Amino acid sequence: MKRAETVTFGGSDLDRAGEIRANPAALAATKTDPESRAVLFWRGKPLLSLDTPATLVRLPLDHPVLRHASQDSILLGREDGAARFAFELSNWVPEDLDEDQLGGFLDPSEQRHPDLPDDMVFAELRRVMTWLSPRDAELAATGKAVFGWHATHGFCACCGVETDMVQAGWQRRCPACNASHFPRTDPVVIMLVTNGNSVLVGRSPGWPDKMYSLLAGFVEPGETLEAAVRREVFEEVGVRIGAVEYLASQPWPFPASLMFGCAAEALNTELTIDPLEIEDAMWVSKEDMLIAYSGHHPDILPARKGAIAHFLIQHWLADRLE
């Protein structure tokens, strides 16, 4: 698919600087480089400037707000030869914090730190992802995903001892048994299942009313992508799949997946929905999907912009999947 890397969170060609992660001297030098910058997060929310267009904030490493950040930082990579580090400010609690809005399907809340200008806010990445440039989106997604992994993998899976962050944030090492642990990315297939002029879509409980998206599911150990596509579609809606073709991928930091977008040909159209998997599913004609994408369909809202499902359906509608 020629336009594959134009998907949100992909295609910015960030220099990840992997060769210096294990080099203490090189890392120390980047920390004193005046061109190095910090990307700040609060509970997984990146710090943005709300100017038009919105941008990911890059702070000098001596900015006062970093005194309140966690000591462990993650080397995200380099821009124009200068390092970019991610820092967490999750111990800070805003005075007007509304916990009920956090962690929802689309968190609209914004948090402002007193040490930062009023136009800088922490905002939910799922809500703002389409506002950002490819580079800003990649930096934000990387930081969010790796910090999320550290938050849930603080203890050794081999012996249970608390582990240490090493390799500039890209590894945890056990001081007791010396086991090494690396950030996890879960492979997920997401399927553009078609039959003639129609595409198969479904919805999960808790989604916004009328929103439908492509079927998706995790790849199991020992499976190929093609086998996972066939299994997931049959499990969720009882449709048998013939030919499967890879189209595009997307890093999806909610919390840490790699979405493999695939085109799949349906061999039958009758739907037998598994209510434990999804709430509803249906075939939608290209004409009806065009109306949904224009925002005027009475019964269907498309997948959110920025998600690979929206990207794939948009290109299917425009006959640009090759």
TrEMBL record:
Q: Which cofactor does it need?
A: Mg(2+); Zn(2+)
Q: Which domain of life is it from?
A: Bacteria
Example of a GO biological process term: NADP+ catabolic process
Q: What InterPro entries does this protein map onto?
A: NAD-cap_RNA_hydrolase_NudC (IPR050241), NADH_PPase-like_N (IPR015375), NudC-like_C (IPR049734), Nudix_hydrolase (IPR020476), NUDIX_hydrolase-like_dom_sf (IPR015797), NUDIX_hydrolase_CS (IPR020084), NUDIX_hydrolase_dom (IPR000086), Znr_NADH_PPase (IPR015376)
Pfam short name (any one)? Zn_ribbon_NUD
Q: Which GO terms describe its cellular component?
A: cytosol
User: Where does the signal peptide begin and end?
Assistant: none
Show the catalytic activity: a 5'-end NAD(+)-phospho-ribonucleoside in mRNA + H2O = a 5'-end phospho-adenosine-phospho-ribonucleoside in mRNA + beta-nicotinamide D-ribonucleotide + 2 H(+)
User: EC number(s) for this protein?
Assistant: 3.6.1.22
Alphabetically, the GO molecular function entries are: metal ion binding; NADH pyrophosphatase activity
Domain Nudix hydrolase: start-end pairs:
183-314
**UniProt keyword terms in alphabetical order:** Hydrolase, Magnesium, Metal-binding, NAD
Q: Which family does it belong to?
A: Belongs to the Nudix hydrolase family. NudC subfamily.
Which NCBIfam families does the UniProt entry name for this protein? PRK00241.1
Q: What is this protein called in UniProt?
A: NAD(+) diphosphatase
Q: Which organism is it from?
A: Roseobacter denitrificans (strain ATCC 33942 / OCh 114)
